[in-house]
């Protein structure tokens, strides 16, 4: 039931965006420009629209609580935040390091054309004020994905007798699936997805993975918007 709330809708949306990109040549974007002539208001409204999707976090936490899982046991507590911040930064640096190495590998093999079948950007310019929306999207996405894919899914699979290795690969496969709208570029989401999933499995610190995920996405939004 929980997976019908997320990630199933995200997967269907990703497939629709991928088809639209292939047929019409449009570029998927997580930035919603609802009022093209009013950037600041557009950024605020886009952030509010996206934030409504965060309700699935409440469902995941509720289902965990009724199954006997405490918030402390999944690391949803202020205790240890200092260590979480340090390890979270380590995850972010490792994620970008691997992504950079993959980028160099792609360029060395395919040259400036990049991966075959990758979705090309349309070079649309976004005002810096859209960073507000980007950061809200980063935080909401991090809470939703880590709550559902790590805290809920990994915990439930463990309760059902799955081995950590099998649970890891299933969670990672689902994570990767709803990034299909990137085209072949979805491969670049695998390293950070693995690091986040493995971190929760080993430490059971939800806030650590949420913080790392949010920071990683926020850095990508900053580079994309300021570089547009």
What this model shows, in words?
With about 230 residues, the chain is mostly helical. The chain has one domain. It is about 70% helix and about 0% strand. It has nine helices and no strands. Helix 3 (about 40-50) runs parallel beside helix 6. The longest helix is centred in the middle third of the chain and has 30 residues, at about 80-110. The radius of gyration is 18 Å and the shape is globular. The N and C termini lie far apart (about 40 Å).
**Order of SSEs, N→C?**
HHHHHHHHH
Q: Describe the largest sheet.
A: none
Shape descriptor: globular
How many individual domains?
Answer: 1
Q: Which percent range describes the beta-strand content?
A: under 5%
User: Uncertain segments of ≥5 residues (pLDDT<50)?
Assistant: none
> How many β-strands, per DSSP?
0
Q: How widely separated are the two ends?
A: 40 Å
| Helix coverage percent | 55-70%
- Structural classification: mainly alpha
What is the overall pLDDT average?
A: 89
| Rg on CA atoms, Å | 18 Å
Q: So how many helices?
A: 9
């Amino acid at each position: 039931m929980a997976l019908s709330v997320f990630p199933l809708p995200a997967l269907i949306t990703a497939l629709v965006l991928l088809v639209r990109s292939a047929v019409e040549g449009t570029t998927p974007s997580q930035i919603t420009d609802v009022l093209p002539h009013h950037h600041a208001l557009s950024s605020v409204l886009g952030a509010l629209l996206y934030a409504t999707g965060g309700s699935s976090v409440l469902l995941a936490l509720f289902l965990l609580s009724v199954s006997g899982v405490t918030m402390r046991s999944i690391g949803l507590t202020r205790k240890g935040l200092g260590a979480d911040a340090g390890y979270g930064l380590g995850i972010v640096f490792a994620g970008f390091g691997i992504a950079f190495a993959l980028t160099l590998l792609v360029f060395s093999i395919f040259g400036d054309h990049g991966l075959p079948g990758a979705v090309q950007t349309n070079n649309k310019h976004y005002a810096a004020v859209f960073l507000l929306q980007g950061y809200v999207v980063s935080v909401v996405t991090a809470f939703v994905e880590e709550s559902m894919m790590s805290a809920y899914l990994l915990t439930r699979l463990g309760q059902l007798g799955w081995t950590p290795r099998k649970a890891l690969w299933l969670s990672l496969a689902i994570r990767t699936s709803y990034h299909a709208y990137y085209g072949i570029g979805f491969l670049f989401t695998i390293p950070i997805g693995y690091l986040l999933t493995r971190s929760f499995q080993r430490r059971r610190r939800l806030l650590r993975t949420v913080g790392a995920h949010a920071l990683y996405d926020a850095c990508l939004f900053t580079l994309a918007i300021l570089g547009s």
